[in-house]
Amino acid sequence: MYGENESTEQTSLAGFDPASSDDPRALFEELRKQPVLQIGPGFAALTRRHDIEAALRNPALFSSREEAVKLGNVRPLIPLQIDPPKHVKYRRILDPLFAPRQMAALEGEIVELVDDLMGKFVGRGECDFHEELAVPLPCTVFLRLMGLPLGDLELFLSLKEGIIRPPGATMEEQEPERKRTADAIYAYFGDLVDERRAKPGDDLLTRIMGSEVDGEQLTKEEVLDVCFLFLIAGLDTVTDSLDCFFAHLAQHPEHRRQIVEDPGVISSSVEELLRWESPVPGIARVALEDTEVGGCPVHAGDNVFLLLGSANTDYEAMPGADVVDLRRNPNPHLAFGGGVHRCLGSHLARVELRVVLREFHKRIPEYSLAPGTVLEYTPGLRSVSRLPLVFSPVAEFVG
Prior knowledge:
globular, 48% helix, CATH 1.10.630.10, 10% strand, five-stranded mixed sheet, single chain, alpha+beta, three-stranded antiparallel sheet
């Protein structure tokens, strides 16, 4: 309840970001003492799993539309910022392209990419895992999927950073860089769509452009809005997850050894580390009507932050959620969101994460943080800017 503590909560949470906390689980436990937190004028956060699940299942009340989050885009991002019933049209086109079987077919290629990246550092006995594996892997997978030149990797990384982590301490200060970056994204993909219409390829972009629903293909603007979202999601969230996974494993050798000694635990380890770390700590919605959550008011027009990380560690809703269990099954975490807007790329992300856990530990079973390392987690999406690991050099690398 807000009650007498409303002004105190606004003050204590102003400017706070769970993603950058050294221990977000402890923070979330404290936040769950209230079902709704007023974190500023017109901004609220839901903290408890039951309430967050209900909000995810109710887009008619908690909408994902454009007002929920502004990223420099001039139209709603597809399908994220489109609610039902129109949302169904886009998912009917996109879901089959990202189905589990389609993504599983990419595993061999992803293994090769991981082998190539590891081959550059296994003989050194050290690496910056973030720079040398977590960043380039998902970006390269994205470029290959979309049929884009690998030489554009650095360009895409700069575009991603310009949207997700632009310079500036406030949204207002960040807006000019986001707008400049968004214009560059639209221009790049606008030219690319024109090229594909003239000369189709064997790639995901061509398949998106050629898909039909009720006899209609997507317009050029709709394709651009899909590409804008794919660039952000495809280039950052897997990087964030890999950073969080290996930062945890480097500091918890008992969990690392469990994966090394029993590779059969890798699939469930992916799910558990997604739950525990919640690299996307929360997602934004906008309330379309006045309502109450846990007896606390939420007003129409409020921006409502659904704290997925808090839901994932809410041990009152899910007994045992306050400990890491790499064999947890079932594991109904919300790391990929839920409801109609559940993450479109979740199956691809899982393949990439499983492959890295398997291939890395097969070749480098013993590693730790470089001495003196102090991890600094990034705001917004939980990641690290540096993740220096040390290990015994591998004399001969066999791919």
